[in-house]
Amino acid sequence: MSTPKLNLVVAACNNNGIGINGKLPWNLRKDMDFFKAITMKTSSPDKQNAVIMGRRTWQSIPEKFRPLRNRINIILSREMKDVPEGVFLARSLPEAISLITGTELVDRVEDVHVIGGSSVYKESMTGPYPCRLYLTRVLADFDCDTFLPEIDSSAFSKIPNPENVSTDLQGENGIKFRFEVYEKV
């Protein structure tokens, strides 16, 4: 398997904020459904998608949902000693990709999704990796302490949504948002 395309899945508000105190600053059921659909859907019943996340993103997932079911969970951490049951541990993004393309997982993984945090998004977006960005653009202001790097318009271009998810303006809990998809050029 050559270097797989990294599918970055993220929701960001007006200031590119993606979280505060290890949590999402908003509660959008449609965004969670979109996240699950994108990260779980495979064309082969014999394969699963991999989700790559940093240690803090892993810790931000409520314990009852860890590991994310029906997905191969890979945590990036240079500090973790104990590997949680049902997950893989990699010390870096290149190591995670080697794990996916290596003998143990190569026949089990269909697509690769990066689900946070900020530094993992940045490395994916600026590194030599082919990538697609699935962005839920939350059209509101929230206090955040974690941010999505700016989307470089010379490196990424907005594309029609390939999964036929509505790009129309949506609303939930008084918050407006829309789904956008970008491809690295």
From TrEMBL:
PROSITE patterns: DHFR_1, DHFR_2. Pathway: Cofactor biosynthesis; tetrahydrofolate biosynthesis; 5,6,7,8-tetrahydrofolate from 7,8-dihydrofolate: step 1/1. Residues 5-184 form the DHFR domain. It catalyses: (6S)-5,6,7,8-tetrahydrofolate + NADP(+) = 7,8-dihydrofolate + NADPH + H(+). It comes from the Eukaryota. The keyword Transmembrane helix does not apply. Its EC number is 1.5.1.3. The keyword Oxidoreductase applies. Keywords: NADP, One-carbon metabolism, Oxidoreductase. Belongs to the dihydrofolate reductase family. This is dihydrofolate reductase. It comes from Mya arenaria.
